[in-house]
Amino acid sequence: MLKIENLSKRFGGLAAVNEVSTSIEKGKINAIIGPNGAGKTTFFNLISGVHKPTSGRITLDGVDVTHLRTDEVAKLGVSRTFQTTALFDNASVLDNLIVGHRLRTKSGLWDVLVGSSRLKNEEKVCREKARDALDFVGLSHMANRMAGDISQEERKRVAFALALSTDPKVVLLDEPAGGVNPDETVGLADLIRKMVKHGLTVGLIEHKMNMIMSLADKIMVLNYGEKIAEGTPAEIRANPAVIDAYLGSEHADA
Ligand SMILES: Nc1ncnc2c1ncn2[C@@H]1O[C@H](COP(=O)(O)OP(=O)(O)OP(=O)(O)O)[C@@H](O)[C@H]1O
């Protein structure tokens, strides 16, 4: 699905991502783990067009997407969530989703000024997509709640809904279970499994090792920007380099 070849990103003298080659495999949960500052979020930022790579190549189903902008990558089917879910706290959950969707599918100013039929149609589609996404993540009953009044776990679900509202093929989830309790983590893991069951491909960054080990089909381990291992959960758990760099340390949460 996504093929990443020799991908690097330098910030000044720092190689945040260094010559990483891997793939995000279709219909699978592809996890990325590693210590704080290992380059995991930067890796997602490169794939989703937030940062331009210093070198390397990214292809999506054979199409070169290396230098595309975020909105262009989103239109081709790559969507993502962020570590912190920025919502408009004084707007309803549904309105947050509608605005989020519009930001990703915006009509031109001309459409807005003349109230074109394209815009009206887009608005209708947008509202339907938002409701479908809310339903998928189990928050239909929260549609009219103020975003500022919902729990951290519900914010995480809204983040999933935002990512799903653009009909992606691949969803990149950056610490989806950060800051939520163990029971809620199980619920979010179920939701990730449901995404895959519905045909989505998932990229997953997470520090919660129980969650990663039970969910991932494959795990890539980054350390100081470099890929130090890749394999099944069982292979990764037994890999001495990974234990040394990450699993044996205090970084990985249960
Ligand atoms: N925009 C930026 N400008 C300069 N340096 C950056 C930028 N983004 C990330 N870095 C640096 O790149 C390195 C990798 O950071 P990144 O956030 O990708 O790590 P991470 O593995 O996601 O960490 P965490 O688990 O803490 O989220 C860090 O040293 C970070 O300080």
UniProtKB/TrEMBL annotation:
<keyword id="KW-0472">Membrane</keyword>
<dbReference type="GO" id="GO:0005304">
    <property type="term" value="F:L-valine transmembrane transporter activity"/>
</dbReference>
<dbReference type="GO" id="GO:0015808">
    <property type="term" value="P:L-alanine transport"/>
</dbReference>
<dbReference type="GO" id="GO:1903806">
    <property type="term" value="P:L-isoleucine import across plasma membrane"/>
</dbReference>
<keyword id="KW-0547">Nucleotide-binding</keyword>
<dbReference type="GO" id="GO:0042941">
    <property type="term" value="P:D-alanine transmembrane transport"/>
</dbReference>
<dbReference type="InterPro" id="IPR003593">
    <property type="entry name" value="AAA+_ATPase"/>
</dbReference>
<keyword id="KW-0067">ATP-binding</keyword>
<dbReference type="InterPro" id="IPR027417">
    <property type="entry name" value="P-loop_NTPase"/>
</dbReference>
<dbReference type="Pfam" id="PF00005">
    <property type="entry name" value="ABC_tran"/>
</dbReference>
<dbReference type="InterPro" id="IPR032823">
    <property type="entry name" value="BCA_ABC_TP_C"/>
</dbReference>
<keyword id="KW-1003">Cell membrane</keyword>
<dbReference type="GO" id="GO:0015188">
    <property type="term" value="F:L-isoleucine transmembrane transporter activity"/>
</dbReference>
<dbReference type="GO" id="GO:0005886">
    <property type="term" value="C:plasma membrane"/>
</dbReference>
<protein>
    <submittedName>
        <fullName>High-affinity branched-chain amino acid ABC transporter ATP-binding protein LivG</fullName>
    </submittedName>
</protein>
<dbReference type="GO" id="GO:0016887">
    <property type="term" value="F:ATP hydrolysis activity"/>
</dbReference>
<keyword id="KW-0813">Transport</keyword>
<dbReference type="InterPro" id="IPR003439">
    <property type="entry name" value="ABC_transporter-like_ATP-bd"/>
</dbReference>
<dbReference type="InterPro" id="IPR051120">
    <property type="entry name" value="ABC_AA/LPS_Transport"/>
</dbReference>
<dbReference type="GO" id="GO:0015192">
    <property type="term" value="F:L-phenylalanine transmembrane transporter activity"/>
</dbReference>
<dbReference type="Pfam" id="PF12399">
    <property type="entry name" value="BCA_ABC_TP_C"/>
</dbReference>
<dbReference type="GO" id="GO:0005524">
    <property type="term" value="F:ATP binding"/>
</dbReference>
<dbReference type="GO" id="GO:1903805">
    <property type="term" value="P:L-valine import across plasma membrane"/>
</dbReference>
